[in-house]
C-alpha cells in the first residue's frame, strides 16, 4: 500500500494527558503568577476564576459547591469515597480499570460492610436496572480504558436516598451530564480540557454537603481528604483556598482552556465537537474491515476514549504473542511517521487501539488518521505474510 501524503495536522490522540485546545502555545502562559503564593490575593483570584468559569461553561447549579483538589481525578474520587461512604449500603459499578480500583478501595481499604460490586467485562456495562437506588452509588460516567459509557442518567432515581459519586473525568465537557442526578462529580484538567495533570475538580450537591456535615467516617482521614472542620464544611475550599499548593502555571493553562470553551459556545459546542470527532472516526471504522468497537452496544459507546479491537481473520488466527507484537508494531510505526502518538490500548484492557476524540481534537485530523491506520496495518500484514 502506497504511503500517504496527507497527515493529521495534530497527531496527539492520547487519552490523557490529552491534546491541547486549538490555538494553544506557550504564549498563553505569559500571565501565570510564577513565583507568587497561591494564597495571595492575586493567586486566589486566579483559582476562583477557574471555579467561576467552570460553573458557567458547564451550567452547574448555583447551590452546588466546586473545589480544586489535589491528585487529579483519582484524588477527587478518593476524597469523596473516604469522606462520604459508610452510613448507607454502597454499590460500586466496575467495568474497566479505574472503576475496578474504586471497587477495591471500597472492599479492601474502607471495608464497607454492606457493599455490592456490580462488575462487567471490558466492552460491557453492568445491568443498570438492577442498581439499588437507595444505596450510595460509585460509578464512572465514561470508562476511559474500555470505551464504554452510561447512556444517560435515567437509571438514577430523583427520590434516591443514597448519594451518587460520579467519576466523570473523560465525560465532562464532552457529554451532557444531568447535574440533578449527580451528588459528587469529579474530573481532571488533563482530559477534555486538554489541561495539565495533577489537579482535580470536585463538585458537591447540597445532599453531599449535608452528608459531610452530619457524618464522621470511622476511619482516619488524611489531611488532603478533609473537607470539614468541627462538623462544618470548610467553605474556603470552594472559594479557591486549596488544601495544598496548586501549580499556578497549570492554573493559567486551564484558564486558557476554559476561555477557549467560552469562545466557541460553551459546553454545547464542546459536546458537538466531540460528537463530530467520534462520527469522523466511526466513518473510518465502518469501512476499515479489520477493526471493530470494543463496546458491544452502540448506545454505550464512548465518544471520547474510543476503544477498538482487531478482528481481521488473519490477525485472529495468530498466537496471542504475535498479536501483541503486531499491535505494538502498529502503534510504533504510526508514531515513527509522526501521524499518531499514544494510541495503544490501556495496559490492562484487551489488545487494540484507543483513540481520543475529545473536544480539543479536530475532526479533520481524525479523518486524516484513518487511512494511515489502514496503511500501517497493511504494511505489517504484508511483511509478516511474506516472511511466512
Write a structural description.
This protein has two domains: 228 residues, Aspartate Aminotransferase, domain 2; 122 residues, Alpha-Beta Complex (Aspartate Aminotransferase, domain 1). It is 36% helix and 15% strand. Strands 1-9-8-7-4-2-3 form a seven-stranded mixed β-sheet, sandwiched between helices. It has a three-stranded antiparallel β-sheet with strand order 12-13-14, with helices on one face. A two-stranded antiparallel ribbon has the order 5-6. Strand 2, helix 3 and strand 3 form a beta-alpha-beta unit. The two termini are 19 Å apart.
What distinguishing features does this structure have?
7-stranded mixed beta sheet; alpha/beta; Aspartate Aminotransferase, domain 1; about 400 residues; about 15% strand; single chain; about 35% helix; Aspartate Aminotransferase, domain 2; 2 domains
Amino acid at each position: 500500500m502506497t504511503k500517504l501524503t496527507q497527515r493529521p495536522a495534530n497527531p496527539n490522540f492520547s487519552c490523557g494527558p490529552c491534546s491541547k485546545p486549538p490555538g494553544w502555545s506557550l504564549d498563553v502562559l505569559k500571565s501565570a503568577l510564577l513565583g507568587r503564593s497561591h494564597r495571595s490575593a492575586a493567586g486566589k483570584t486566579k483559582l476562583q476564576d477557574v471555579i467561576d468559569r467552570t460553573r458557567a461553561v458547564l451550567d452547574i447549579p448555583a447551590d452546588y459547591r466546586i473545589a480544586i483538589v489535589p491528585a487529579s481525578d483519582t484524588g477527587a474520587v478518593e476524597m469523596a469515597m473516604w469522606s462520604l461512604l459508610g452510613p448507607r449500603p454502597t454499590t460500586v459499578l466496575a467495568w474497566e480499570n479505574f472503576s475496578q480500583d474504586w471497587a477495591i478501595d471500597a472492599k479492601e481499604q474502607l471495608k464497607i460492610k454492606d457493599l455490592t460490586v456490580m462488575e462487567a467485562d471490558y466492552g460491557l456495562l453492568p445491568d443498570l436496572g438492577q442498581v439499588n437506588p437507595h444505596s450510595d452509588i460509585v460509578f464512572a460516567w465514561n470508562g476511559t480504558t474500555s470505551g464504554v459509557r452510561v447512556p444517560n442518567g435515567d437509571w438514577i432515581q430523583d427520590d434516591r436516598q443514597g448519594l451518587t459519586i460520579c467519576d466523570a473525568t473523560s465525560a465532562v465537557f464532552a457529554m451532557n451530564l444531568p447535574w440533578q442526578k449527580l451528588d459528587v462529580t469529579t474530573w481532571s484538567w488533563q482530559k477534555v480540557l486538554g489541561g495539565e495533570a495533577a489537579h482535580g475538580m470536585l463538585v458537591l450537591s447540597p445532599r453531599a454537603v449535608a452528608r459531610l456535615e452530619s457524618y464522621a467516617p470511622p476511619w482516619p482521614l488524611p489531611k488532603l481528604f478533609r473537607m470539614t472542620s468541627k462538623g462544618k464544611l470548610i467553605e474556603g475550599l470552594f472559594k479557591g483556598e486549596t488544601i495544598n499548593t496548586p501549580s499556578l502555571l497549570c492554573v493559567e493553562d486551564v484558564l486558557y482552556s476554559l476561555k477557549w470553551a467560552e469562545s466557541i459556545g460553551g459546553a454545547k459546542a464542546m459536546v458537538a465537537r466531540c460528537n463530530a470527532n467520534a462520527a469522523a472516526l466511526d466513518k473510518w471504522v465502518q469501512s476499515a474491515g479489520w477493526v471493530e468497537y470494543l463496546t458491544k452496544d452502540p448506545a454505550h459507546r464512548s465518544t471520547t476514549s474510543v476503544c477498538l479491537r482487531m478482528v481481521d481473520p488473519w490477525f485472529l488466527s495468530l498466537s496471542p504473542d504475535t498479536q501483541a507484537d503486531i499491535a505494538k508494531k502498529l502503534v510504533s510505526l504510526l508514531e515513527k511517521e509522526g501521524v499518531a502518538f499514544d494510541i495503544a490500548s490501556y495496559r490492562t484492557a484487551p489488545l487494540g487501539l484507543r483513540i481520543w476524540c475529545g473536544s480539543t481534537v479536530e475532526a479533520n485530523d481524525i479523518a486524516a488518521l484513518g487511512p494511515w491506520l489502514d496503511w500501517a496495518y497493511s504494511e505489517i500484514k504484508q511483511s509478516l505474510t511474506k516472511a511466512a
